[in-house]
Amino acid sequence: MINPKTTTECICTGFLVFTIQVASSELAPIAIGAILISIVFAGGPISGAHYNPAVSLAVALRGSMEYDEMFQYMVSQVVGGIVGGLCGGIVSSSYSVVSMGDDATYSQALLAEVIFTFILCFVVLSVATNPKVENNNYYGLAIGLVVASGAISVGGISGGAFNPAVVLGLSISSGFSGLIYGCLVIVSNLLGGCAAAGCFLLVVPSEDDAVGTGESAPLNRA
User: Fold this and answer.
1) Which of 16, 79, 144, 159 has a CA between 20 and 30 Å from the CA of residue 120?
2) 92 belongs to a structural domain
3) In terms of residue numbers, what domain contains 82?
4) Concatenated DSSP letters for the chain?
5) Is 180 contained in some domain?
């Protein structure tokens, strides 16, 4: 039987990685941010619209989804990323990978990935799992703008992934190119997600932290 949540995660992550693969102009960060805003609003009521293993990890650590479902989401996201990367490569006749800037060091690039993944996951938790802002209409916009800002700010330093599914989708679809650096980026992304969850639990009052998997906020449906 088809699982609507994981299917949505797979399809929409594919849309995201496809857009990343074919967006090659100076406006690429805007295109990526815009498609993310759209698919977050589209898939939010179904799956919670994670589209990112680091986000799913942060949501699970925050207590808004079970760990077995988190792993199902992660697998679906990676599969979607691979399909999106393959389709994007066919359409654009070229395959991109997440790569470090020519003038950047590993410490600079990986720190940039940790920081912006932290920002992304913290924003997701704050706008989509905080009961004080439940049923808000801006969560998708906030999430998409973080990714666009990150791509503009540090894309030339770290590659601007902030998402292990993007890293694996692009690398595997291009014949495992750039996988060594990609693995380091994945670890950085997951560390950023863990840090975001820890910080969120520190700043949200305990009486407001009793949200489980209700129907109030998009990511609480995960």
Assistant:
1) 79
2) yes
3) 4-198
4) ---HHHHHHHHHHHHHHHHHHH--STTHHHHHHHHHHHHHHHHHHHH----SHHHHHHHHHHTSS-HHHHHHHHHHHHHHHHHHHHHHHHHHT--------TT--HHHHHHHHHHHHHHHHHHHHHHHS-GGGTT-S-HHHHHHHHHHHHHHHHHHHH-S---HHHHHHHHHHTTSTTHHHHHHHHHHHHHHHHHHHHHHHHHS-GGG----S-SSSGGGG-
5) yes
Cβ(186)–Cβ(54) below 8 Å: no
CATH code: domain of residue 39: 1.20.1080.10
Longest dimension (CA), the chain: 53
Q: How many domains, the chain?
A: 1
If we measure between CA atoms, which residue out of 194, 144, 137 comes closest to residue 12?
A: 144
Which residue from 40, 35, 49 is spatially nearest to 7, judged by alpha carbons? 49
Q: Is this model's pTM higher than 0.70 or not?
A: yes
